[in-house]
Amino acid sequence: xxxxxxxxxxxxxxxxxxxxxxxxxxxxxxxxxxxxxxxxxxxxxxxxxxxxxxxxxxxxxxxxxxxxxxxxxxxxxxxxxxxxxxxxxxxxxxxxxxxxxxxxxxxxxxxxxxxxxxxxxxxxxxxxxxxxxxxxxxxxxxxxxxxxxxxxxxxxxxxxxxxxxxxxxxxxxxxxxxxxxxxxxxxxxxxxxxxxxxxxxxxxxxxxxxxxxxxxxxxxxxxxxxxxxxxxxxxxxxxxxxxxxxxxxxxxxxxxxxxxxxxxxxxxxxxxxxxxxxxxxxxxxxxxxxxxxxxxxxxxxxxxxxxxxxxxxxxxxxxxxxxxxxxxxxxxxxxxxxxxxxxxxxxxxxxxxxxxxxxxxxxxxxxxxxxxxxxxxxxxxxxxxxxxxxxxxxxxxxxxxxxxxxxxxxxxxxxxxxxxxxxxxxxxxxxxxxxxxxxxxxxxxxxxxxxxxxxxxxxxxxxxxxxxxxxxxxxxxxxxxxxxxxxxxx
Length: 490
Known about the structure:
Layout: H1 6-37, H2 40-47, H3 62-77, E1 83-86, E2 95-100, E3 105-110, E4 117-118, H4 127-135, H5 140-164, H6 169-173, H7 182-196, H8 198-211, H9 213-216, H10 241-252, E5 256-262, E6 265-270, E7 283-286, H11 302-315, H12 321-352, H13 360-385, H14 393-411, E8 419-420, E9 423-424, H15 426-452, H16 461-486
Helix pairs in contact: 1-4, 1-5, 1-12, 1-13, 2-4, 5-8, 7-12, 8-11, 12-13, 13-14, 13-15, 15-16
């Protein structure tokens, strides 16, 4: 007996289409922000060009750690939020003192060699995309449950899409008709990008659900790791951190990743490399003497183990370069899958009903999809064009991102629709305008970085990678403008 009967297929297709069109806009930006957050460390380094003076592999000195403790003490006296220390790592050689500003972790940058404070510009950097990925920049009480619901719906949409195409998965690997009509080309692109990285789509969606189980399934108790309890009292340690880190290396065999402080206690977390699990078990030290405190010998339970694995798979913090690049590629294909599905729906709707005025979905699609790329480039461009010491520049960057995105979305509702020979040219004009704006802005980002970061520092690997991705994306957008002029509509 065939499981996918015509009636079930019709219901699956209805759910896949309706859930996709109502939630696809937010799902697209969530996946795009999540993909960019995989390179949040590199994006932050790019957006703070002043830190380029710190060479890769710089040795962490005791003087730098003592200076970090001094800054912690000054912050506590000034009443600033509680901070923690992120230690140098292969992806970022700087020493960071970070505190939570309500949306992202920001703070001072210290040269690990001598403890001098690097006058880095105030920015949220790549952490902006990390926060936007799981809260949509909304208050946590609203944003996290909303993203949890969208993630659950996305998992069901992926499942329904697999069931709809289960008989054609192998052919879809090799089907992309570039010269076909626009709806056929978009459908091929949607199926190809969804099929090629199907295991990644499943892993990233359902691990996201595990991480947000408390919001998606509030009846399941899950204890998330590495969230220290909020306690009162002075958190600045009296013990020197240098000997503490050396003993941590000796005891655990891992490189220390970051340090969290609580009254009378120093907690050091180790970050392994080339691993899937999120982090190793931390070690606690006495905040006054620096001696190792007795640890909890109770083994981690099954729930904690699953949560740690989900953290590692979803965040990809400890993966090697090859796996991280694979995860980034999967994120790009996920956004392509969602975007092509949204554009296919609006294109197919116009093809079936060419005599009616463009609907809300068709008007929103260019700005919601293409405008997100414009907003990303505007965010980077503002970071390099605003004065480095400008008060409140962090807010100008983030507000510029949303302003650019909203303006692109509103462009689709401007009253310049025209009917030529019985077919709309309106949608094509809006798409060409948005893609052209994205391409020009992306090229301006690369040029601005070349102007600001002079000399050999511009040839640093991190800057070359970020600038290369911006350049390729900008050229792709400009190629899309040219392709829309030549591509057949039906």
